[in-house]
Amino acid sequence: MDVVTPCEVTASVAAPAESTGDPSVAAIGAPTPTEVTLTPTHVDGRSAKGQGKGKRGGPDKRRGGAREPWGRPATDGTAEPRENSEPRQPKRKVALLMSFCGTDYQGMQINDNARTIEGELFQGLVKAGAVSQANADSYKKISLGRAARTDKGVHAAGQVVSCKIIVEDPDIVTKINAALPPAIRVWNYARVVGSFDPRKACDSRIYEYLLPTYVFLPPRPKPDPMPDLTAAAAAGERGLRSTSVQMTERRAYRIPPETLERVRVALHRYEGSHNFHNFTIAKKFHDMSARRFIKSFTASDPFVRDGTEWLSLKVHGQSFMMHQIRKMVGLVILMVRADLPETEIFAQAVREPKLNLPKAPSLGLLLERVVFDSYNRKVQATATQKGGEDERPPIVFDPYQSEIDAFRESFIYSQIIATEKAEDVFDSWLLHFEAFPEYFPFLASGGKVLDQDCVVRDSAPLPTDQGEHENELAVGDDDAA
């Protein structure tokens, strides 16, 4: 018979020992079901409990030490301490409302081999204590998701990222921002249901395109045409640039009211449901996914920054395809500056013949905000049913608009304007279009489809497409804009 050592005190109500088959014989130390008891421990380290059918005594090899009944770690010092033994705090599914300047980042989505917005965000969440050390080794443990993916160098004034984080600290947003670079800001978070998917819950998106008004200046006298495609490619690599005197004249341009009105009328023609197969790649006219609905397309009043006049174009749509926004803007620029009939041009662009339409530079494109109107209506309805006690608020940026506007001016607009001033991006784009009109015979002919030359050809070697990743926003069912 085993020798029994002094008993350990347990604070729980013990369960009956297992039967040995003989009702007159009870297991050693078996308590009655309702009493608080002392549990004997054998000298060989095995608990008296567990000697019934199919159970073997001995130390718990998984933990490396003795264990108390019901799976609790032993309190006699024989159990090894667990790693990351910090107090466990509950994770909550939230939607983070944020803004960022994409300069110097390789895109939005986290990538182990690149510097990304989500990579910086994850590290900031860990440093702020919103992610426990047990989960700090992998972003997958917090279920990161996003309403829209942005590529290299692209900015966002209103983006939503979902994740499971610790939000018990009332100052958690302040601590997250303290751990993030100044070019990435989190404005607040909203509690969401566990099944929330920001990409699917987002029912529309608003994009902004910033451009200097000098792009609407009438074309200069035609330059000497490039002798061949080899010379064209070389020009694309080194870039065509106006002289400093010419650029001074361009930057002094101020758009007349009648030209601005033409821009607004042309943008308005995109509104509604249309077939945009000519505004993307790899889409045919009969492909139903090429039909998109545009809620609005507007142009702001002009404003001056650093001596150059600018316009802000904003397009609100359900979803967008690869290159769609840049081609929409590019077509309007060339129609207005060349005084082409926008009615006929637009009518041809949305019909069946495949046409080559120009892409405006990627520099001016940014995500203005993602919209969750349908989701917010459901949240409001649920809160009403529960008497206003639902802890899940709507996902809206309005309460933080002043902070967002200040961030956009300081980090996003300033970056776009500085890059344009240093590199003359829009000027170079216009000069290439003028130098290679054969790439866009549809526009050169005044919007008439003359022959098969209007079928899509390789684009002219524009400087924004040379040696750089396509700076496109990616949203909607095609994950591109």
Structure described in brief:
Helices cover 26% and strands 17% of the residues.
Task: Give a written overview of the molecule.
Its main location: nucleus. GO terms for molecular function: pseudouridine synthase activity; RNA binding. There is one protein chain. The chain has 481 residues and is of the alpha+beta class. Helices cover 26% and strands 17% of the residues. The chain folds into 3 domains: 1-72, no CATH class; 92-201, Pseudouridine synthase I, catalytic domain, N-terminal subdomain (Alpha-Beta Plaits, 2-Layer Sandwich); 205-371 and 384-478, Alpha-Beta Plaits (2-Layer Sandwich), CATH 3.30.70.660. It contains 12 helices and 14 strands. Strands 3, 4, 6, 7, 8, 9, 10, 11, 12 and 13 form a 10-stranded mixed sheet that branches. The chain has a two-stranded antiparallel ribbon with strand order 1-2. It has a two-stranded antiparallel sheet with strand order 5-14. Helix 1 (117-127) packs across helix 2 (172-179) and helix 6 (257-268) packs across helix 7. Residues 1-55, 59-71, 449-461 and 464-480 have low confidence and may be disordered.
